[in-house]
Amino acid sequence: MTDNDTTIKVLPVLTAKDFASDQEAKWCPGCGDHSVLQQLKQLLPELGVAPENIVVVSGIGCSSRLPYYLATYGVHGIHGRALPMATGLKIARPDLSVWVGTGDGDALSIGGNHFIHTLRRNPDLNILLFNNEIYGLTKGQYSPTSKIGLRTVTSPSGVIDHPFNTAALTIGSGGTFFARAFDRDGKFLRSIMMRAALHRGTSLVEIYQNCPIFNNAAFEAYATPDKKADNTIYVEHEKPLVFGKGKNRGIMLDGFTPIVVDLDKEEFSTSDLWIHDERDINKASILARFADDDSLPRPFGVFYAEERITYEDALATQIKDAQKNGCWTLEELLKGENSYEIKSAN
Amino acid sequence: MTDTKKTTRQVNVTSKTSVSVLFAGDSGDGMQLTGTQFANTVAVHGTELNTFPNFPSEIRAPAGTIAGVSGFQLQFSSKPIYTPGARFDVMVAMNSAALKANLKNLHRGGIIIAGTEGFDEKNLKLAGYPEGANPLLDGSLDNYILFPVPILQLTREALKESGLSSKEIDRCKNMFVLGLLYWLYTLPLEGTMETLYAKFQKNVWMAEANIKAMKAGYFFGDETELFANLGRFDISPHKQHGIYRRVTGNEACAIALTAASKKAGLELFLGSYPITPATEILQTLAKKKKYGVKTFQAEDEIAGIVSSIGAAYGGALAATNTSGPGLALKTEALGLAVILEIPLVIINVQRGGPSTGLPTKPEQSDLFMAMYGRHGEAPLPVIAACSPVDCFYATYEAARIAVEHMTPVICLSDGYLALSSEPWEVESPDNLADIKPRFQPAREASAPPYLPYKRDERQVRSWAIPGTKGLEHRIGGLEKQNETGNVSHDPENHELMTKLRAEKIALIAESIPLQSIDNGQLKGDLLVLGWGSTYGAIKTAVEQAIEQGLSVAHAHLRYIHPFPKNLKEILGNYKQVMIPEMNSGQLVHIIRDTFLIAPVSLTKVQGVPFNEMEILTKITDLLKELQS
């Protein structure tokens, strides 16, 4: 689905400006977070949701300053805990559009437990995971997504922790939506955020985000035009996996193994290629593992989108069922179900 | 008195005021069920009642050992009572370990009903009796009235034609004991029969087998010569006419949260993680969906409280329940709730600590943590419940303060209150205090900007919930500028906000009731000051001391932070203040620190509640000292 396919009501009176708060963004110049904020401000007016019905929740870290810069409701919580906060809010108020701004440290390290459990429960949240593969706010320590060998202040000899694969973790945790975007590709990022907003359930958007101070050029391989063509692949539902400068390369599945084929050679055509299917969890799992193999291009786009009942809807159904004969009264509550009458004293 | 058609032989029935009974056996012997059934019957009979279960933390500790003993103690009386009894008058011991573990708490001259099969060679060995020793035979129980009863054999005989498997038959032996006790205390069988028929609706034969075992126990008392000299007892009803229900402390907490949400017109949200002995609050509320209650079993304690903070931000009456280790995990989030200034109820059901400590045993050792256990300066109200029924009123009050003063409130209960039960005269909704949330109304675009941290005369900010037009604002854990709530690192502002947050809590003292004297004269020699579950033991001890003509009074604190405004004056009206606590003297520290007086501390850190005799002894000793 692209921007053009969306049939949501656009509020003509609201623009990005209406979603900018009076606070100046305090991220470093050149930080990828500015780009995400900019795209979100552009997107929010397109959602057709009034600003008072949007809440942005965050934890701690550079990315978690996001709520302060948007003229919606916002809560900046504590480190790692944005997801349970957003879950509690969504359960109490299913009517709200709830967004979460979090980072690789906040969501995957200190908040790792909440991350997996939120995904399996599937509350309708839109999670923007700013992945810069570094701890920025605490000044440059390695994160759970830092590459092996990365030298930081806490890994002077190089990182020896095997990094998390966010896509695989999301799918493995029972998540119903995973997409990857890139801070430099604003328009695409916005289209992915729109898809996240439209997905009913927990939408996990991993955003490769450059930290110019502590981990500059971590995603350079996908950034410059010449490298980008060969190192990235943009997946689209029901379209073959094609990439390369002249769209001349493709991905074929040999059993469970993805292989890169050259479409310029006569032996392969696009009809031999892997056709992307967002609903196929097995293919999504293979796609998720591309990040572990340097010979494969890095996928961007919606890997996986599954329709599954949200936590708050399932709970609401149980409550509705319990109340099918009406909501019980305070008198009934106080009396209880095992009360007894004492007729007289001795 | 009973439903039985059989005429009872001429056996003496003696009237008694109070009896304390212990049902003790192996954790697989069904003693909790037996005790609960007996309690239900005496409650409906209209006597005063207090129960206390005592069981190991293991679900199935090794059978026959001391560690595996499960007990259910209850006291019933024809006058008001406040404890399950310091010592028991009657002990049912299904095996030798049950006897050995509990004999020290049986009154001299008390009755022992011993299931003889539990005293065979194997069981005696498991209980740690020396080889060849058998307390049922060796005269070591001569100071008690001993009734050895072949409970298992008699149950098997009664049910031999029931068609049940031998395992099922053996499991009915607790019903035999129950029937025997009903006979002994001239109590009716109908209540338990109704319960059994309801429980085994689909297996009526199972209900009938249990009833047959119970009747066999009843007739055994009737027919055997064993009890001829002892006779039967009667404890006459005391309760006034009315509708009652029996609640445990944990159930009362759950009902209170639901009631508060109804009264306040808010939805109730409980974010929680199972932990002994607080779990029944979550379990009870999970069954209250017909009242619109939303419960969320979170992945951990932290998610439990943080999800509640999210719900509170959204405008729900939000609560979380836990015990010591869980409260420790929640403390960072409590700081967030303090700085966000949102309503939140935290029920902490205290248990023995530190660490995993004594999970199933009560202690009052989290008072310091409730008062001070947060980083930075993060004051919040602390209130305590003093009886199972009072868990309702304390929790309700915690919810009222939280909502009306926009603050997290810690409500302290403990493992003793949580699992103990008493009859509660059904409360009328009209008697419950109003709870009025101060929601900020929507703002016109032309109106001045909304100031989330603007305060009223009580220093309370308004509750601006998402969905309200014109109030879009951002708040968080970072220090805020006064009134605007914008992030601020200004030194003077931080000091001002710290003071304002503390002042808001201190000002709650203006709206809570003054401290009252529970019992005794307004001035005198000794004030026994208590808090929490020590209420029953102190109440009983002070009653007895006053009967002896001693100049002693009892005050019990509901509000520990802030203290009632007149507490200083009250403390000054007595020559000496004594504080009994199930910790090493935490309230003593706080009272000494606040009022610069030196109370006497009486402490017990055994995972076992005080009994009235311990407190009475201390009262007597102190008054002797004062007079000399």
Q: Care to give the gist of this entry?
A:
The complex is a heterodimer of chains A (346) and B (628). Chain A is α/β, with parallel strands linked by helices and 346 residues long.
What does this structure look like?
The complex is a heterodimer of chains A (346) and B (628). Chain A has 346 residues and is α/β, with parallel strands linked by helices. Chain A has helices at residues 32-43, 82-92, 104-110, 112-121, 166-172, 186-198, 225-231, 281-288, 311-322, 330-335, and strands at residues 54-58, 73-76, 97-103, 125-131, 177-182, 203-208, 232-235, 242-243, 249-254, 257-262, 298-305, 340-342. Chain A has a domain at 3-218: Rossmann fold, CATH 3.40.50.970. Chain A is built from ten helices and twelve strands. Chain A has an eight-stranded mixed beta sheet, sandwiched between helices. A three-stranded antiparallel beta sheet of chain A has the order 8-9-10. The longest helix of chain A has 13 residues, at 186-198. In chain A, 47% of the residues are buried. Chain B has 20 helices and 22 strands. Chain B has a seven-stranded mixed beta sheet, sandwiched between helices. Chain B has a six-stranded mixed beta sheet with strand order 3-4-2-5-6-7, sandwiched between helices. Chain B has a four-stranded parallel beta sheet with strand order 19-18-21-22, sandwiched between helices. In chain B, strand 14 (382-384), helix 14 (390-405) and strand 15 (408-414) form a beta-alpha-beta unit. In chain B, helix 4 (151-158) crosses helix 8 (204-223), helix 9 (249-264) crosses helix 10 (279-286) and helix 11 packs parallel to helix 12. Chains A and B meet through strand 1, strand 2, helix 2, helix 4 and helix 9 of A and strand 9, helix 9, helix 11, helix 12 and strand 17 of B. Strand 2 of chain A pairs parallel with strand 17 of chain B, so a sheet runs across the interface.
